[in-house]
């Protein structure tokens, strides 16, 4: 058997592969696919990664270069109230793993596409943030907040939509004094602030200004800050656009 002058085996040449077939499932993985990978601790859920590259050496040992997704509880700041159960963060952590550790395929949706799913399957996840593993920083580092509790949107939570709201638009039932069961039976909903504005308008008073104090949630791993970005009116338009294009209205009928 050939050896180098230092007594070491020569480095085996590698070749790029177009795909890899998962053992036992027959599913085909290609670069760009998201996969579930077997953890070293059998008590943990599978790791989620995006396959960047597939390659094989002359002994047919197949390796995959992956970019890891982190679950909220794996991040420096941990899981928070607004994190969805299927939420992932796309990290800047890359690795080389044996293809044999791939257990299956999954789909990591954009936040917008995830909120439009009629049925969320076991293979469905979503991502709305990139995550810097070394520093705990998020991109973007702030998002719009909703409800009186001023929290980012969690697609797992039922929310009711005010039909005349100039401020928060979406509310958690508990934050407006109702149960989830009561919220599901609603045909219409107007928050207390809008009801107050209607009464004032009927009495000849002007309603609240369209320049509402729209806030955002800023991410750091140790603390949060609410801040108004730009002019209040610009922020209002931004929130309206966000609700129309990013957040799927909750069906409470």
UniProtKB/TrEMBL annotation:
Record GO terms (molecular function): chromatin binding; histone H3K4me3 reader activity; transcription cis-regulatory region binding; zinc ion binding
Gene3D superfamilies linked to this entry: 2.30.30.490, Zinc/RING finger domain, C3HC4 (zinc finger)
Keywords linked to the UniProt accession: Flowering, Metal-binding, Nucleus, Transcription, Transcription regulation, Zinc, Zinc-finger
GO biological process entries: flower development; negative regulation of gene expression, epigenetic; regulation of photoperiodism, flowering
Domain BAH: 27-142
Cellular component terms (Gene Ontology): nucleus
Subcellular location(s) of the protein: Nucleus
Record family assignment: Belongs to the SHL1/EBS protein family.
Protein name as it appears in the record: BAH domain-containing protein
Lineage: Eukaryota, Viridiplantae, Streptophyta, Embryophyta, Tracheophyta
